[in-house]
Every structure is written in C-alpha cells, then in structure tokens.
Amino acid sequence: MSEERREPASTADAPWPVRQVTQKVQAWIARLGWVWVDGQVAQINRRPGATTVFLTLRDPAADLSLTVTTSRDVLDRGAPELVDGARVVVHAKPELFPGRGSFSLRADEIRQVGVGELLARIEKLKKLLDAEGLFARERKRRLPFLPSRIGLITGRASAAERDVLDNARRRWPAVEFRTVNVAVQGVGAVAQIIDALRALDADDRVEVIVLARGGGSTEDLLAFSDEALCRAVFACRTPVVSAIGHETDAPLIDYVADVRASTPTDAAKRITPDLTEEAQRIAAARERLDRAVDGLLTREEQRLVGVRSRPALARPQLMIDQRAGEATALRQRASRCLEHRLSSGDDELRHTLARLRALSPQSTLDRGYAVVRRDDGQVVRAAGQVRAGERLRITLADGELTAAVAVRPADS
Asked: pTM of the full predicted structure?
C-alpha cells in the first residue's frame, strides 16, 4: 500500500476537513458502479427549457425514496408517457454532489414496466409464496361467529368502506368497527396498509380484520400483490378477510388471507351474521324443540298408560293371589312327597325288620332248635368236638341248660 493511501485516522485534535470526508464518501459510492433499480415514480419534475429531469423513485413496500436525475432525451426515449405512480426500471450510477452533500442516481436508461411484465412478476412471486406455505389451506383460521369488534382497512370515504359498514350494520346493528383509512394505491400505499394491519393486529379487542377496496386496473391493485404486504398478512394473529376489487380480481393477498370475499359487500356478509336470519333460525329451532318435547311427552304418556293397563299394575293383588296359589300347591305337593317318602320308608323298614327277624338265631331257637357251647364258648357243630364227661351249655328259646357228655358218639 502506498504512502498516500495510509492516511492518519481522524481525531479530535486532527479532524478531517469536509472536502476530505466528501472525497472518501464519493470514492465508496463510486465502487457500486452501474446498477438496475426497480421502483415507483413518486414525482416527476420537468422544468421548462431545462434538459435535466428529476424523478423521485420510491420503494413500493417501504417508506424509502431516492432522487434520480436524467436527461430529457433519455426519458423521452425510454418512457415518454411516464406519470406519477408508474413502475419503472432505471439503469443508473450513484453519485454524491459535493456542493450540496446530496446523493442521487444518474440514469442513462429508463424503462417503464408494462402490465404484462407486472403480471409476470406477480406470478413468479405467487409461486414463491406458495412454495413457502403462505397459501396453505391448513393454516387458514375460522372467522368468529359474532365478533365484538371488527378492524377495517380501506380508503377514506370510499365506496368500499360504505359498503362494508352499511351492510354489516344492516345485518347486525350492534356491530362495532375500528376503521383505519389508508392510501389503497400509488406511492406509500403498501407502507400505510402494513402499518394499519399491525396496529389492528395489536388491538386485543379486534377479532377480525377486513382489507377492503373497490375495483380497478391491474396497476391500481398492484399494492395488494406486494410481497411485504403478503408476509404481513401471513404474520397476523388475527383472522384477515381480503375484499379487494371484484370477483374477477385476484391479488396475492386473496391467497394469503384466511377468507377471500368477492366484494366488500360479500365481506360484510361473511364477518357478521344476519339478525333477521338468526332470529328466524332461532324461531325454527324453538319450534322444532317444542315439537320434539311434545312428541316425547306424548310417547311417554302413552307408555305410562300402557304400563298402567298391564295386570301387574291394574290388579296388583292378582299377582299375590297367583303366587299364593302356587305356594299352596307347592306346599301340598311337598306334603304328599313327604308322606310318600315316609310311607315308603316305613314299608321298607318293616320288610327289612322281617328279613332281619327271619335271619335271627332267636327265630331258629323259637322253632325248637338249641345252641350248644363248650365252656370256652365255642359252638359245638360236630360230635367229635366234645369229650366224654365234658360239660356243655345249651341255649334254648327261653333259658339255658347245663349238661354233661356221657359217651361220645364215636365211642358208642
């Protein structure tokens, strides 16, 4: 780096003069070179007899502007019918005028943007916003049934404002509005609409916001297809209704808004219920409810009559009589069963007793038989079981005898 470029830094004791600061700023600005700039013409100053034309070029989406200087020949060659509000593209180089310390763009070419090019830009922006999800159906919010306060953004004393207010109040007289009047076309419209949108969105009492404007040309409705405005609508916490132009008009905020209304009148119908219609619906609902209750009472009354006519309720003692008869029959049946069982048991007992008696030794003794036992109690069944002289006990049917064996049968 050369010695000339290594300049000492400015200090309070060694400040730079104005000319040096101006030269440095000029050097920095000159580095930008020639650029293409897109903007909206806010003002054209053609001085009679002068060859230089001054333009004020404004950003469509922000409160920023630049001064553009060009020759009358350049303007007549590129945009001879240029008027305030037109959209242009200029090829210019930034310059700083040291005498006034002012900054401007010096243009050597100016092109007025036609409707076809504007529509092409809008279509390109539409695809971009759609890809980012700003048009997604799932993010659309439902409007409140009866909003306590409605925010309205529209032009001052416009037909759109009158249509929304009159139709909404005709449908629901108690509806409350907070209206913000803005420019709806031309320079500064986008910035004013965005500011109004943010102010209404910050108001906790506002439950729905309506953007309303009457019909117009493509250039007139251009502000409502601005990218910054579309993103501002998407960022709102409050549901937004777009009512721009007529049914055939479709600016980009129609796709971003939660609800699209074909006209401002249609917007009024969408945001407020009709008092007359609601009263009729309530009356019809009450009539259906009355019929339902009457039908229910009639059916229940008939059911009660049917229940009361049943024997169990018409003659409740009949059930007791029937059960008493059944109890008596069961008791008699039980008695007969018990008697039969006792009789059968008695017969069986007598038969068993007879068989027992028939098999009893006593019965044998009663028939004249005797039981002979030795002294040790052993029953004598054969003559060989006793000896001569052995004493025996003889059991009879009545009593017992003692005898002695004189001679054994085998010995005789």
From this structure: 0.54
